[in-house]
Amino acid sequence: MAESPSQPKLLIAKDFDELVRDAALFFADCAEQAVALNGRFTVALSGGSTPRGLHRVLAGHTDDAALKNRVATIPWEKTEIFFGDERYVPADDPQSNFLMARETLLSEVPVPDDQIHPMWTNFENPQDAAQSYEQALQQVFNPAPGEVPQLDLILLGMGTDGHTASLFPGTAAIHEKERWVVAHWVESLQTNRITLTPPVLCNARHVAFLVDGEKKADVLRRVLEGPYVPDELPSQVVRPTHGTLTWFLDTAAASQLTQR
């Protein structure tokens, strides 16, 4: 019998700084619990603008003494870093999610290099890059045949078109059932992307969306309160069956919600 998706939890902050604080505390809690349970913490980072603020706080750049002390306890030496998606550009390209994470977080915290797993884009064929990342997941998680890797935490954003990771409206990746990672051409952006697929996104112990700003208010309302139309709003496909789903929002992003 299939598991039922968990009900999402909404945490609405007064502003972006409070949103980032809430998310950083959640990150630290997830890390502490995972290490206590399994001896390590596995997390997938997201790209985009919102995570930059979170990364800075996780690296200790905050004037909030209590918050700074809390993030200082994150067991980075026992953390395995993954990525939810990547633009198919060189690792030193300004658009690279890995470059952003390295500059804002990974260069400032003591995660061992062999525990950082970028989606490498130095393959001639993007499909080979996706296969390589599946192999990396296989090596770290070693799931039983037919099972899917279970990350402790997957961080996600949401675009104004309702996309998340690199699951864009109208793309076949939204409906992927077997592969853990796919590379695909995104026609609307005229670019290749690599992304974790719904089987992995929905199998995490914790999934956290970070969404801020009034420009995302309408699409957020449609994602959370409208009909289930993942081909139009791919963020709706993220419905964890073995974990929690938390939306970290600011009041601007949440301004059109009728149910809180």
Description:
The protein is α/β, with parallel strands linked by helices and 260 residues long. The chain has a single domain (25-234, 243-250), classed as Rossmann fold (3-Layer(aba) Sandwich). Helix 1 packs across helix 2 (50-58) and helix 2 (50-58) packs parallel to helix 4 (97-106). The two termini are 30 Å apart. The chain is globular, with a radius of gyration of 17 Å. It is built from 7 helices and 9 strands, in the order E-H-E-H-H-E-E-H-H-E-E-E-H-E-H-E. The relative contact order is 0.19. The strands form 2 sheets. Strands 1-9-8-5-2-3 form a 6-stranded parallel beta sheet, with helices on one face. It has a 3-stranded antiparallel beta sheet with strand order 4-7-6. Strand 6 (181-186) and strand 7 (191-196) form a beta hairpin.
Question: What secondary-structure arrangement, pairings included, does this model have?
Answer:
Layout: E1 9-13, H1 16-38, E2 41-45, H2 50-58, H3 65-71, E3 79-83, E4 85-87, H4 97-106, H5 126-141, E5 153-156, E6 181-186, E7 191-196, H6 198-201, E8 206-211, H7 217-225, E9 244-250
Parallel strand pairs: 1-9, 2-3, 2-5, 5-8, 8-9
Antiparallel strand pairs: 4-7, 6-7
Helix pairs in contact: 1-2, 2-4
